[in-house]
Amino acid sequence: MNPMDYTIEKFISEKEIKDKIAKLADQINADFDGKEIVAICTLKGSFVFFSDLIRSLALPVRCEFLGLSSYGNQTTTSGEVKVTLDLNSQIEGKHVLIVEDIVDSGITLQFILKYLEARNPASISTAALLSKPDALKVDVDVEYVGFEIQNQFVVGYGLDYAESLRGLPYIGILHLEE
């Protein structure tokens, strides 16, 4: 991707993200009150949010990773979810926290919920840094939402465009040049 093909408008600052994660961690700590949770990072986009969130929790946390793909090199979801990496351990009887970077159409999260419910966890909750309520195509419940945003394509803080721009320390709106 050529840097001349796009511009990025700074949207959510590093400080705003850090402050929001602290608030989400406080909510999760209170709701789980010392119980062990299995935090599942949905790869690849959630890894930055995931690492900051789990370091802010005052709970025993086991970490798992679930690789998924639904965007490819596009700015909109294909609607088809593919598992690219499965969990390494059992979650039966465990309290599970799915950590998502963004809930856009809801299709990926709906897939994850059904996929994990079949493994009989004690509970499943979801944390998402970003949610686009206007873009939802299916009804999904997200207990812990950082920011609700408009239906715009965002990058940075783990979110990518064609595998680029994940390393930005803030969230920006991507504007592709015509």
Compute the gyration radius: what is it?
16 Å
Q: Reading side by side through the largest sheet, how are the strands ordered?
A: 4-3-2-5-6-7
- Compute the separation of the termini in Å: 14 Å
SSE order in H/E notation?
A: EHEHEEEHEEEE
Proportion of residues in helical segments = 10-25%
Anisotropy-based shape: globular
What's the count of strands? 9
Q: Quick check: average pLDDT? A: 92
- Tell me the structural class: alpha/beta
Could you provide a short overview of the structure?
The protein has helices at 14-32, 47-56, 107-117, and strands spanning 6-12, 37-43, 61-69, 82-85, 95-103, 123-131, 144-148, 154-155, 171-176. It is of the alpha/beta class.
Write the layout of secondary structure elements.
Layout: E1 6-12, H1 14-32, E2 37-43, H2 47-56, E3 61-69, E4 82-85, E5 95-103, H3 107-117, E6 123-131, E7 144-148, E8 154-155, E9 171-176
Parallel strand pairs: 2-3, 2-5, 5-6, 6-7
Antiparallel strand pairs: 1-9, 3-4, 8-9
Helix pairs in contact: 1-2
